[in-house]
Structures are given as C-alpha cells and as structure tokens.
Design a protein that fits this description.
The complex is a heterotrimer of chains A (702), B (251) and C (206). Chain A is mainly α and 702 residues long. Chain A has 28 helices and ten strands. In chain A, strands 7-6-5-8-9-10 form a six-stranded parallel β-sheet, sandwiched between helices. A two-stranded antiparallel sheet of chain A has the order 1-2. A two-stranded antiparallel ribbon of chain A has the order 3-4. In chain A, helix 21 links the parallel strand 6 and strand 7. Chain B has a single domain, classed as Rossmann fold (3-Layer(aba) Sandwich). In chain B, strand 2, helix 4 and strand 3 form a beta-alpha-beta unit. Chain C has 206 residues and is an all-alpha fold. In chain C, 82% of the residues lie in helices and 0% in strands. The termini of chain C are close together. Classes of the chains: A mainly alpha (702), B alpha/beta (251), C mainly alpha (206). The interface between B and C is large, with 75 and 60 residues.
Chain lengths: 702, 251, 206
C-alpha cells in the first residue's frame, strides 16, 4: 500500500500507521481510525478547533519559507502551512470535525469539562506540541469543560532533576492513550492517581514558558514547561470530541481534589491570530502562563515533569514573562562540590557561555554550551604545513632569550679576560726583556762574553775528523732540518762547511724532508761567496729529496747510486768526478747529518752507520737534542757532533776562524742569564704566592 | 747487525706477540680487569670527556706529525686508538671530536677513524670529513693550524698525543690559557720536558702507550700493557745484571 | 661487521717484512723491498691527497661559510696555487724559486720559534704554580742548573777541579734519564707494532 505522508514533518509512513513514526503526529489517512479507536483526546482537539481568527491574514507557504530562512523552526513552518491550508478549506475541516461526535468523547473528559464550560481549548498550543491542526472553536465544548476544570485542579509539581526530563519527555510522548475503551479507563485511573500525588505538591511552579536563550525563543519548538491548563480547558470546550487520553499528557485532577481556582477564562487559542516572526514565537505559540492559575503541563501527567514546576516556582518573577531563561537547578551541595569549576565560576548563569538553551533536546538544562552559536563558528579543520611559521612576536622573544644567553657568556668572558690580560702583560714584559738582552749586546760592540776555556770532546773530534778528510773523496751531507732552527744550525754548520770548502772537498747533499735541501743551499750561499773556487761545477751536487724516511735510508745505505740516480735537476748524479767513484755509501769520505731532531739523527745512525764502515759520521744537531746523541757518541757510532751555539763557538775557536757564532755569543750568554734570573724570581714568587685551588676543610669532601 | 742479534730480536718479537695473545685470551675467559697504578691525568681526562658531553662542548685531538713510515709512528697509532675511544665515549654528545694531524697519511686515517666511530655509534649525521684534517706539513705549520682549531670556543678539552717537538709548548700554553683541560703526551723527550712546564698533568715516558689500556678500549690493550711492564722489568734485570757483570769483570 | 680480510693482509705483510728484516734471505728481501717501495709511494700520494683536502676541503669550505669571515683561507688557497704553479713551471731547483720560498718560509718559522722561546721562558716562571710538588721543585732546579751550564759561564772558573768534575757528572744525568725514557718508549712502540701486526688495533677501516 502507498505510504502516508506525515502532515507535520512530511516523512513517509506506513499506510497502516496511525501516527507518524518520526514526530508522532496523527496521520491523515488514519485519522478516522484514530478517531474511532484511539482514545487520544488530542485528535478531537485537532479536528474541532476552529481556525484562528487572527488579524493578520494567513500566510502562504512562501511566507513560511521566508520565515524559516529567518531562523524559524520547521515545526512552526508546518503549522503555518497547515493553517493556510485549513483556512483555505474550512469546510473540509468542518467535515472532519463532526466526525468527532460527542458520542466519542469519553466520559471523563466530559466530566472535566463541566467546570469550564466557557473556556476554549488552547488548540494552538496543543497543535504546536503534537502537530495536530488547531481544533475548531465552534465545536461544542460544554462537555469538555468538566475535565478541563478538573485539570485546573492539577497542581504543578516541583521541577524534577535535569536527568529526568530526557527520560520523562519520552514518557510523556509515549504516554499515548492506550487504544480501546477499556484501556481508556485504565490509564485514566492511573492519571487520577498521579494527579493526587501531584496535588500534594503545593509549591507553585513557574509558568511553563518556552525556554529561551537570551530572550530569543524563535527556535523553540518544544516548551519545557507544560501549557496552562486553563487554555487547554478553554480549547476543550470548543471541541466536540475530547480524546480520552488527554489526561495522560498531564495530570488529571481527581474529583476529590480540593477546589482549584478556576482557570482563566481566556482562551488564547481563540486569540491566536497568527505567528509574528518578529515577536517571540514561543510566546505566540504557547499559551500564556499565570502563576495564579498554576498551570500544569497537559502532556506530563506524572511527577517526572515536576522539576519544571519547581523551577518555575523558584523564580516566579521570571516565570511571569513568557520568555524567560529558566533558573538554574538547585543542585545539591555534593554535586556542586564535584564540579570545582562551577563552584569557582559561580552559577552557570554567570558564565555567558553556559546558559540555558531555549530549544533543542537540551532545553532547560543548565550549563549547556550554546550549540547554535557553534554552527557559525564552525570552521574546517586547520591544515598544517611542514614549515614552521614563526611570528614576529616569537622572533622577538627568541632574540631576547639569545641576548640573555650571550650576556651570560659575556660575563664569563669578562672574568677570563681579566686574567688573560694580566698574563699577557707579564708575557709581554718577559718578551721585552729577552729582546733587549739579545739586541743590546749586538748593538754595543765589545760586549762581554765568556769564551769556552775547555772544548767539548765531541767538538774536538768533529774538528779533527773534518781536518783529516781526504780531498778526493766527496762528503755526503744529509740536510734534515727545517726553517725553525735554521738560525741555530747555521751557526754550527758554517764553520764546518767552511773547513770543507777550504779544502775543496766535493759535497753531495740530500734531504729526507722536502725543505732541507733548499735550506742547505741557502746556507751555502755566503760560503760560496767566501770561497769562489768552490763554485766550480761538479763540486756541489744536489741529490734532492729522499722519500720514505728511515725506509729510504735503508735503501740509500744499501745502494745510493740506485736509490738516487739523478740530481734534483734530473741530471745524472754519479757520472762526473769525483762522484763517479761512488758505488756504495762507504765510498764517501764522511757522512754529515744536520738535523734538529734527535730521532732523525737516530735513524741515520741506526740505518746507515752499519753500512758506513770506517767512514766517519758527524752530526750537527740542535742543543735540545744533544743529550740524546751523547750515548751514540760514547758508543763510537758518532765520531763527533756539534750541538748549539756554544759548541759552534768552540769549533770556531779550534779552527781559529771566528764567524757568526762567536759574534752572537755575548747575546746568547746574557739572554740565558736573564732567563735564569727570571725563572728564579718567578719560582720564588710562585712559592710565596701559591694558593691551592681547593682548600680542604675538615668534614667536607674535596 | 750480526746474525745473532737479528735472531735474538726476532725471537723477542715472537715471544712478545705470544704473551700478548695469551694474556688477551686469559682476560676474555676470566673477565677480570687488571689493576694498574693510578694515573691522575687519566681520571681527570675521563671526567673531562663526561663534562664535554654534558656541556655540549667539543674535544680536540691533536695526533702529532709522525709519519707512518717512521719508527715514531707508534705514537701515531696510539693517538688513533685514543681518538677512536674518545669518539666512542663522547658519542652521546652532540659534538663529535675533531682531529688535527701533521702528516698526510695520519690525516686520512683520522678521517677513517672518525667515520668508523660514527658508524659504530649510529651518529653518521654528525660525521663531517673535515673534522679530521691535515693542519700543516711542517711541525710549526701544523702547530699553527692546530692553534686555529683550538681557538674555537666550543672546544674545552684538548688531547695532544703523538710525536711532537718543543713546538708543543704553543699548544699546551694556549690550551691552558683558554681554560680547557689538556691531556698531553709525546714520545719525544724535549716535548715531554716542555709539557711538564706548561701543563698540570703531563704524561711522561711510556705513559703515552698506556692510554688505550686506561681508557678501557679492549682487553688486548690491557694485555699489551701488562706485557710491556714485564718486558720493562726484564730490561731492568738485564741492565743490572750487565752492570754487575761489568763490575765483576766478567763481561 | 668488520671485514677480516684486511687484518689477514696486515698479518701476512707484517710477517714478510719482519722476516725480511731479521732473516737476511734474498728471497725475503726481494719481497720486502718492493713492499716498502709501495708504502713510500702510497704515502706520497696520500700526502698529495691530504694537501688537496686541506686546501680545497677545509679552506675552501671555510670560504663558503657565510657565518664567519675567513679571509686568511683565501690567502692560503691563493698562496698554494701560486707556489704550486711556479714550482711546476720553474722547477723546484730553480734558484729564484728557492729564494722566494725560503725567504717566506724561514722568517715565519724562525719567528714562531722565537715566540716559543719567550713562551717557554714565561711558562718556566710559573712552573712551581703548576707543579707544586717535589718533582716540580727538582725540575725547577734542573732548569736553572742546565741553563747556566749551557751558557758557558762556568768557563770563568776553569781551574776548579771539583767544579769541572761536577759539571761533567751533572751533564751525564739527563743522558741516563733520557735513556730510561727512551727504553720505555721503545717497548711501547714494540707492543703497539705487535698489536697492529696481529690486527687487534685497526686504525684502518674494515
């Protein structure tokens, strides 16, 4: 069978369904069956309530659509549409309404209607709640006044806790009257009992008013508090058939109830002229509340909705106005204690973000976030990129932090700088004194100096060895020194080479480091000028660089001709006289090793000396390495050696040829004595001024 | 050298190698760390390494200018071992150590060692080939280049191990002036004399070769140090015996 | 996982070189000599690589570092290129080339050595601050004595027999101490070489 569209929400329902599955509105297709079988008194209200005679003309659907665009809820739009439809077809409504004959009105309803014959049922409010079209005002309601008057006696109860409304509303909705006349009596009895319980609650409840949010009730669709009973009674008088389950929606006052003040005679449904979108819609749709009347919710017959009354009773002033914010629930102290935030922030009313919402399933519940305000503020989720976005503020703060960190370093460096400056000053004083000690004797002629009285044995041996060299045998010179100690070695080298050049002995020189041969050539320059005959070609052969260090020395000792076949100029080295007689290392007249490093001298001694045989080995070495060479001299591996300036002076003295060494002896000795004095003074001062870094205290660890 | 001397030398080398292997195997089987005499410089150095890791500072290791084809290369190998161990100890920090050397082959090996350490400690992202560089080809040029590295304010620990001359006085003096901790050792006597005057805790003599064992590099280093002590005792006995025999006129 | 191949090669080569040194067998010498030559060639090439790394790796990289000014690195690179080009063009034995090189190198190194002398003298002033112990005190005394000995001022009193004997005896003291240190260094070198030979110490990658 074809689905039946719901007149309120428009959703399709089963053809056999009597009520809309979604909004519980009575379906048109089943109206007749409902009216026949269902004891829903609202059905009669829907059909019997006359159309509103409001001053404003009925608005068409387009207007309703426009109003919806302004934020009017859908149910209100549907109401307007139905109004328009009903106004357009009043005969059909009238035809419908007669179907609800008086014979179908249950007795209890007629009894209730006795007390209020002139009242008109608040058809608009009921229709607003249940989606039932407004009842026909012209329908007789005399029989309905009794039950409505009885409804007046129903006293609103205290508002129940917030948890209950969510449970109770479904009950209220679910409190649909059972079908069948037999069931009608049962639930009627139930509601009578409940009404007796409600009557015991004498606390006036606030007039149920639509929950508003900041006074805006435009979107309210379900009031939290029941509509006034007076209006219901007045509307019921206009109905022909008041459904039996009318009492299920609210407490049914029993006949034994004490006399209740008569409900207001005003039938607000009759005064309903239409909804003005500019005004409070809830106030327009819902019946007005009155504290004197103590209205009761027609649909909430049990105590579950009493919390609303209690809330209303607590704030009667606020309830007098149709659109007022519900008062916050009076929670027990122990619940408040659980929520420290609420206790700190005060009541939720103080927090504008947490207020009562006038609409929605959470209407009337305090502390609820305003959902409607979230919608406009909803934004799509932010997408984050991989790059770091640093704001200017962050950069400024980072720079401040960096300055603070650098400042701490500056403070430390300041302390270090102080100590460094004192060291540098003392360093400079020592350097200046030493320079003066070196320079002044050089400038002042005739400076005192102490010539050696006793010549060292190694120097004498070296001198004697050089003097005894054969003239026809070349001498091999190993210039393994660098430029750092060239000055000291040149003092020792020049008198020795002078002797060799004076005898016109050929010299072949090589080096195991890259710069030695070049520096030796430089040392020869003044001697070549002094001995011009020595500059003949073939007297000096530069064998160049011997690679491999001690490994190369082994090869040289084994076969020098094969090891170094060419000179540094890439010319044959062993073809000219007297080098053509050289076949092995021992063919040389002498081996002279010039070095500042004792290890180098040791390599030559250990690697080459065994192959020298009787060929003497003379070493020109720096004074710092002389003690290391002494054992080799003592063992006879080294024929003689010249170490330092003092030995060079001794050699020059032996050769009776004072040269640069003798000329610098005065500076050398004065500077040494000055250094000795400085060290002595510094040592004594250190002993006097010594302060340990950490002074141990008794009982404390170091 | 005579054949007898050569054979004695060969036997000595083989016996030493056998002793090293034996003691190494023994230490691995019986995990007992041998006890050596306390050297304050090594204890302070360990604290300095820990401090550098905590402070986020860098350690500068100067490897000297010994050529690997020279007998003085032994100190270079010790410095490479120390560099590797220092790299492992400081791998928890953000700044790996840097190494400067005065020999080309040594510079390449230092880069290789740092790369190996980075691989072992999973800190490859911190490895930089320029951290192991040739500072100079001559001793003074090398010292000048190393001084430039030492002036980096990040460096608070300087390890000067290798073959130096008297120019090491520059490095040790500047290190002391900068307030950095200095651990210096050389196989050269002039360098040792200079270090004694310019540093607080110099290593004298063969303490240079004990560095790997004191840093707990591996059991073989501890074993070799034990063998070294044995051989030293043997040499002392030989010298004393020879002197006595010489006095007695036997020899 | 480190490759075991390199330590095996190291061991074999070490055996051959040692045997060739201690055992004068011609066959071993014929194997050992080329190996040593190869080592010298490799070290020479390594020197070239290391220098290239120094110039174009370290100093060139410093030039490209925008955080600091490394003008001296530019000078180093420029000096290297000029010297290298002149050496290739003129030859290392060219007298003019040698004069220029020595004229630059020698003053620099000599001045550095002079600064070292001042630095050592200044450090000797504060010797007892650093080494405040008996060893430091004896070292302090030894410095003073040997400085005076090497200055030659004791030649003013040549006729004092005790003095000359004392001086010659004192002169032998550092020799004995040096010998002891050198023996220890030699032993350490021996053990280090054995560790390298056995593959326990692997300064090479693998």
């Amino acid at each position: 069978m074809a689905d039946i569209p719901c007149p309120v929400c428009g959703r399709p329902n089963d053809s056999k369904a009597e009520r809309c599955w979604y909004c519980q509105a009575v379906l048109h297709g089943a109206d007749s069956a409902v009216n026949k079988n269902s004891p829903d008194w609202l059905d009669g209200l829907r059909e019997n309530v006359p159309p509103s005679t409001g001053e404003e003309p009925p608005k068409d659907v387009n207007a309703a659509a426009d109003s919806a665009q302004e934020g009017i809820p859908d149910w209100l739009v549907r109401i307007r549409e139905r109004e328009n439809l009903e106004k357009g077809k009043p005969e059909e409504k009238e035809t419908k309404f007669p179907e609800n004959s008086d014979s179908e009105i249950p007795d209890w309803l007629t009894e209730l209607n006795v007390d209020s014959p002139n009242e008109k049922s608040p058809a608009d409010s009921t229709s607003a709640k249940t989606g039932v079209p407004p009842s026909d005002k012209e329908q007789p309601v005399d029989d309905d006044n009794d039950w409505l008057k009885k409804l007046e006696s129903w006293q609103p109860e205290k508002p129940r806790p917030e948890e209950k409304p969510a449970d109770e509303e479904p009950k209220a909705v679910q409190a649909a009257p059972p079908q069948g006349s037999k069931d009608e009596e049962n639930w009627l009895k139930i509601f009578k009992e409940e009404s007796e319980e409600d009557s015991q609650n004498e606390e006036p409840s606030a007039q149920p008013s639509p929950v508003t949010v900041n006074g805006d009730s435009s979107s309210a669709f379900l009031p939290d508090e029941p509509a006034p009973v007076d209006d219901l009674i007045s509307s019921a008088e206009e109905e022909k058939n008041l459904p039996e389950p009318a009492a299920s929606a609210g407490t049914v006052p029993s006949e034994n109830d004490p006399a209740k003040p008569e409900p207001s005679k005003k039938n607000w449904l009759n005064d309903f002229t239409g909804i003005k979108p500019d005004e409070n819609l809830a106030a327009q749709v819902l019946p007005p509340t009155n504290n004197e009347d103590q209205p009761k919710a027609p649909f909430t017959g049990d105590q579950s909705m009493s919390f609303l009354d209690e809330a209303a009773s607590e704030t009667p002033a606020a309830a007098s106005e149709p659109s007022k914010i519900l008062e916050p629930a009076n929670l027990p102290a122990w619940i408040k204690a659980l929520n420290p935030k609420q206790s700190e922030e005060g009541s939720p009313q103080d927090n504008p973000a947490l207020t009562n919402t006038p609409f929605g399933p959470l209407a009337g519940i305090e502390g609820v976030l305003k959902g409607e305000e979230l919608l406009p503020s909803f934004t799509p989720p932010h997408t984050f990129t991989g790059t770091i976005k640093v704001t200017e503020n962050q950069q400024a703060r980072a720079q401040i932090l960096k300055n603070i960190a650098d400042q701490s370093r500056w403070e430390d460096e300041g302390l270090e700088e102080k100590s460094r400056s004192s060291h540098r000053i003392l360093h400079g004083i020592v350097a200046a004194l030493m320079l003066l000690a070196v320079w002044i004797p050089l400038v002042i002629k005739g400076s005192p100096s102490v010539l050696p009285a006793l010549y060292p044995g190694e120097v004498v041996q070296a001198f004697n060895t050089i003097n005894a060299l054969p003239v026809d045998k070349p001498v091999l010179v190993a210039a393994d020194f660098d430029g750092s100690l060239y000055g000291e070695l040149s003092w020792s080298l020049q008198p020795l080479l002078s002797q060799i050049m004076a005898k016109n002995i050929a010299v072949a020189y090589l080096s195991t480091n890259s710069a030695g041969a070049t520096l030796f050539s430089k040392a020869l320059d003044p001697l070549v000028i002094r001995y011009p005959n020595y500059s003949n070609p073939g007297q000096l052969v530069n064998l160049g660089y011997l690679a491999g260090g001690s490994i190369g020395l082994q090869s040289l000792a084994r076969d020098p001709v094969t090891t170094l076949p060419l000179t540094a100029s890439l010319q044959p080295a062993w073809q000219s006289k007297p080098f053509n007689a050289i076949t092995k290392i021992s063919d040389f007249g002498a081996l002279i090793v010039i070095t500042e490093n004792a290890d180098t001298a040791k390599y030559w001694i250990e690697q080459v000396k065994p192959s020298l045989g009787t060929t003497p080995l003379i070493v020109v070495i720096s004074a710092q390495s002389a003690p290391l060479l002494q054992p080799y001299y003592d063992s006879g591996q080294v024929t003689g050696y010249i170490s330092g300036l003092y030995s060079a002076v001794a050699f020059e003295s032996l050769a009776k040829d004072p040269q640069s060494a003798t000329g610098h002896l005065s500076s050398f000795q004065i500077t040494l004595i000055l250094v000795v004095l400085l060290i002595l003074v510094g040592g004594i001062a250190s002993l006097i001024l010594y302060r340990p870094k950490t002074e141990k205290k008794p009982g404390k660890p170091a | 050298m005579s054949n007898a001397e050569l054979i004695i030398g060969l036997i000595l080398v083989l016996i030493t190698a056998a002793l090293v292997l034996t003691l190494t195997v023994r230490q691995k089987r019986i995990p007992q760390v041998p006890v050596f005499r306390r050297i304050a410089a090594f204890n302070k150095f360990k604290n300095a390494v820990n401090s550098s890791v905590e402070d986020g500072t860098r350690i500068h290791v100067s490897l000297g200018n010994a050529s690997l084809t020279q007998p003085s290369s032994a100190s270079a190998f010790v410095s490479l071992t120390a560099l590797r161990r220092i790299g492992q100890l400081s791998s928890a920090g953000d700044n790996p150590p840097i190494a400067t050397s005065g020999d080309s082959v040594l510079a390449i090996l230092s880069q290789d060692t740092l790369h190996q350490v980075a691989r072992e400690t999973h800190t490859k992202e911190l490895y930089d080939p320029t951290h192991g560089a040739l500072a100079g080809v001559t001793p003074l040029a090398y010292v000048s280049g190393a001084l430039e590295q030492m002036q980096d304010p990040e460096i608070k620990t300087n390890v000067l191990i290798g073959n130096y001359g008297s120019e090491i006085g520059f490095l040790s003096s500047v290190s002391e002036e900068n307030g950095a901790y200095t651990l210096a050792a050389s196989d050269s006597l002039p360098a040792q004399a200079v270090l004694y005057a310019t540093t607080e805790e110099p290593l004298i003599g063969e303490e240079l070769f004990a560095l790997p064992a004191y840093l707990h590099s591996s059991p073989v280093h501890s074993a070799s140090l034990q063998v070294q002590d044995l051989l030293r005792g043997l040499v002392v006995l030989v010298i004393l015996g020879g002197a006595i025999l010489k006095l007695l006129g036997v020899v | 996982m480190r490759s075991p191949l390199l330590p095996v090669i190291t061991f074999i080569v070490g055996i051959l070189v040692l045997a060739g040194y201690f055992l004068p067998i011609p066959a071993l010498i014929s194997i050992r000599t080329p190996m040593l030559d190869w080592a010298i060639i490799v070290s020479g090439v390594a020197a070239l690589i290391a220098i290239a790394n120094l110039i174009f790796g370290v100093h060139w990289r410093r030039l490209r570092d925008p955080s600091k000014d490394h003008w001296f690195s530019a000078l180093v690179i420029l000096a290297f290129l000029v010297t290298f080009a002149c050496g290739i063009f003129f030859g290392p034995t060219n007298l003019g080339y040698q004069k220029v090189v020595t004229a630059i190198e020698m003053p620099i190194e000599a001045s550095l050595m002079a600064v070292l002398a001042v630095t050592l003298a200044y450090s000797s002033l504060r010797l007892l601050q650093r080494q405040h112990n008996w060893m430091g005190f004896f070292f302090f005394i030894a410095v003073l004595v040997f400085l005076l000995l090497n200055s030659g001022i004791f030649s003013l009193l040549p006729n004092l027999p005790i003095l000359q004997n004392l001086i010659s005896g004192i002169s032998q003291a550092p020799i004995a101490g040096a010998r002891g240190i050198l023996i220890g260094v030699a032993l350490g070198s021996l053990l280090t070489g054995i560790r390298i030979w056995l593959g326990s110490d692997r300064p090479y990658n693998g």
